[in-house]
């Protein structure tokens, strides 16, 4: 997995490229928490270029959601393919996260 982080106004956009799995989840978590500590409060994680998230990746997303929420921030997800969308539905995580079909739709939701 690789990812990029950029700002769109006051929204931090994290683009995940590849799989979010046990071997790389901590890198994502550390970078998002670093941004949170620096004062960023609105986060969008875009999975348009991602095809797989394992249970540890889901755990990191839940942890980030909690930390961001505790800081008064918001986390949105976008670009889940059909398999990832089904995963979120089966695990009931679609009730925890606000999920948009596209990055543009998620940005408009802030």
β-strand amount: 25-35%
What proportion of the residues is helical, as a percent range?
A: 40-55%
Structural class: alpha/beta
- Radius of gyration, taken over Cα atoms and rounded to an integer in Å: 12 Å
Work out the oligomeric state of the chains in this entry. Answer: single chain
Distance, first to last CA:
27 Å
Rounded average pLDDT: 96
Q: Which outline best applies? A: globular
Give the count of structural domains: 1
Order of helices and strands: EEHEHEHEH
At the first level of CATH, the class is: Alpha Beta
Number of helical stretches of at least 4 residues: 4
Major sheet description: 5 strands, mixed
CATH superfamily: STAS domain
The CATH topology is: Transcription Regulator spoIIAA
Number of strands: 5
CATH architecture: 2-Layer Sandwich
What topology, given as strand order, has the largest sheet? 1-2-3-4-5
Task: Give an account of the 3D structure.
The chain has about 110 residues and is of the alpha/beta class. The chain has one domain (about 1-110): 2-Layer Sandwich (Transcription Regulator spoIIAA), CATH 3.30.750.24. Helix content is about 40%, strand content about 35%. It has helices at about 25-35, 55-70, 80-90, 105-110; strands spanning about 1-10, 10-20, 40-55, 75-80, 100. The protein has a five-stranded mixed β-sheet with strand order 1-2-3-4-5. Helix 1 packs parallel to helix 2.
């Amino acid at each position: 997995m690789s990812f990029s982080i950029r700002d769109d106004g006051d929204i931090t956009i994290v683009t995940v490229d590849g799989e979010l799995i046990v071997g790389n989840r901590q890198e994502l978590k550390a970078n998002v928490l670093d941004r949170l500590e620096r004062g960023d409060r609105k986060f969008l994680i875009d999975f348009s270029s991602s095809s797989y998230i394992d249970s540890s990746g889901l755990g990191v997303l839940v942890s980030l959601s909690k930390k961001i929420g505790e800081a008064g921030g918001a986390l949105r997800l976008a670009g889940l393919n059909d398999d990832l969308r089904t995963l979120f539905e089966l695990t009931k995580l679609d009730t925890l996260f606000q999920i948009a079909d596209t990055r543009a739709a998620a940005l408009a939701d802030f």
